[in-house]
Amino acid sequence: MNSIQKQGRLEFITSGDSLSKVDLADGVHFSPLAIGEMGAQGLATGMATLQPKATLPAHVHPVSEVIVPLSGAVHIFAEGRRYRVGKYDAFHVPAGLSHWIQNDLSDEPVSCFVSFATDRPSREWVENNFAVKDCFETDSNVVEHLTRFQSAPTYELSSGALFRDLFASRFGSQGICGGYGIFQPGASLPCHVHGFDESITIVEGNAICQVAGREYPLSNCDTACIPRERPHRFINRSENPMAMLWVYAGDESDRTELEQCCCEECHPENQHMVKAL
Prior knowledge:
Number of helices: 1
Number of domains: 2
Shape: globular
Low-confidence stretches: 1-8, 269-277
Largest sheet: 7 strands, antiparallel
Number of strands: 26
Strand content: over 45%
CATH superfamily of the largest domain: Jelly Rolls
Distance between the termini: 33 Å
Radius of gyration: 18 Å
CATH class of the largest domain: Mainly Beta
CATH architecture of the largest domain: Sandwich
Mean pLDDT: 92
């Protein structure tokens, strides 16, 4: 597939096999998946990869950020509070909180999925004078929030499609929410729309993304960015499970279901609302 398919405020697809790279520090680079320059509004997602022993130095962002390792584990520090964050755990960093990341737990590179509550992410490097204290979980005494993947509640959105919420306003994030979904073979979601942009990254298996009459095969960290109010759905037509990380440019998820023809055929006159969730 093309690296980016975009026209105005239509959907666009970023290929996980041909990501651009921006060096952030020695042994650390960032690859955008969905940002404002590509056409996203209200959110940004990307991949931060740390080589063994590499550190992303202390910095702050003006908006919420969430960090989700895709393999291995890293140490994330929030003003010196050190957390071991493993695969699919979600670590929320609020705006203005000094934090840094180290890949000192693995002899292999570790890639982390990152999301921001802005379509134009930025950072400011800051002094690091914090004493280090080991922590396992977060609580009401700290402003950061760690959701452990294994303990996140699972719910079924449709038959064979199981989801876990990993970050949202109820967990402290502002302007973004998201989570993990796994689709068993043959599973799909109903055609639907959202009131804000969504970024969906396929982290396991093979998916079909239907958007207003178009179909896109996705795998290997391919990412679809769907503008608000654009009909779409995901299908697993393969013989193996498929999994995704999804991010909305909103505090909490919302979904309005449509008739299936709105995703399979691009006819605006067929877009009848079924129900809002």
